Amino acid sequence: MNLVYADRDGNLFDHPDYTGLGRSGEMVTEIMEDELIPLPEGATLVSLPDTRPVGVHKRTGEMQVVPGDVTAVGALLPQSFTRLLLPGYVKADKSKVLPLFGYTAVVWKDGGFYVAAEACDDPERWNPRNCDPDELELGVKRILGEYKDNRLFQHLSNCALGYECLTASNTFLNRWEGAVPVSFSCNAGCFGCISEQPDDSGFPAPQTRMNFKPSTEEVVQVMLEHLKTPESIISFGQGCEGEPSTQAKTIIEAIREVRRRTDLGYININTNAGLTDHIRGIVDAGLDLMRVSTISALDDHYNAYYKPRGYTLRNVEKSLRYAADKGVVTSINYLIFPGVTDREEEIEAMIEFARRTDLKLIQLRNLNIDPESYLSLIPAARGERYGMKQMLDIFREELPDVVLGSYTHIPDELAERRKKQLQRG
After folding, report:
1. Residues 6 or more apart from 377 whose CB is under 8 A from it?
2. What is the number of alpha carbons within 13 Å of residue 178 lying toward its C-beta?
3. pLDDT of residue 198
4. Is the pLDDT of residue 7 over 80?
5. What is the DSSP letter of 41?
6. Which of 30, 204, 213, 416 sits 20 to 30 Å CA-CA off 24?
7. Bridge partner list, 109
């Protein structure tokens, strides 16, 4: 498997003299054959600025920094694919930080690109090729014409057309999971926030956060426009906003009004779940699904990354438990990172957390972060590192009733319950 690198102009090459390597945390490591899959459709290959690739010289067997004016290359995976290793690299300038993306090890093998990853879900719904640009433009034009004064639709049109956000795009295509952002503020200061970063963070946020408070009527219009089929999902809590539960009053009013008008579809919230009282109110208003973002079930790791304001991981657990007890299908949006998530103590803590909260689904999401910055922020490893592939196997064995996936699924029992509701009228 040949190392892949980029020249100063961004052109990609494979190096016949070097075997490609990966990284697990700070450790450069060999890539095993069973860790590789062909580059998935929808993936993007990118150069890593201010880095140098590291490989094994095939003649000498020595691990070396590849000479020349070249940079390391990584793959950005589409949703449904879980990263097993980072690219093998060292920084040429340690003061520089990488843009906030989830870089995956890539090599050239058997005449094609391969990545260190595993498919953990069916990628079809979230494949970018299924979002036709012409159809999307027509959908945006139609809805903006129909709802001329709705600021939320105007905001989402930029997310769909400018950022190519598939969830926002779904809102204009009336399909699958659509977006309804509501909050410009947050009760956490996430180190890797993709919508808001301090001026001195070193890495700019790749998205712009919404800067207004939508009215209940604006939210209701977006929800009703999307909830037109039994299988549709509308979701509070998007990458372009803060914590949605800070706007609990608006969400509660909107859910009640929407459910007064229709029983179609499902209402989801993506949340940090720290504001337990607010979450209880949202659950009681008629929530169907709740996906809670977390990076760890260990307090010191969680606090280092999320920097929670006025809540703790214990509040998150209480929110999940309350929602599960009320019949809400709960999941976690698990931000994973090779060399950290697969630590012994992290695995043990997450298994117990999942059992205590009665989780139904773990949605695996590759953490978008500069690796060196993240590793310097969090606690050091205390136990063995198992590797991402073995970690996934352990989860499947220890949590047989928890689905490992990448996006929201509607369990059969919830679908059947909703079907009976619709039949009753």
Report:
1. 191, 304, 305
2. 29
3. 58
4. yes
5. T
6. 204
7. 112
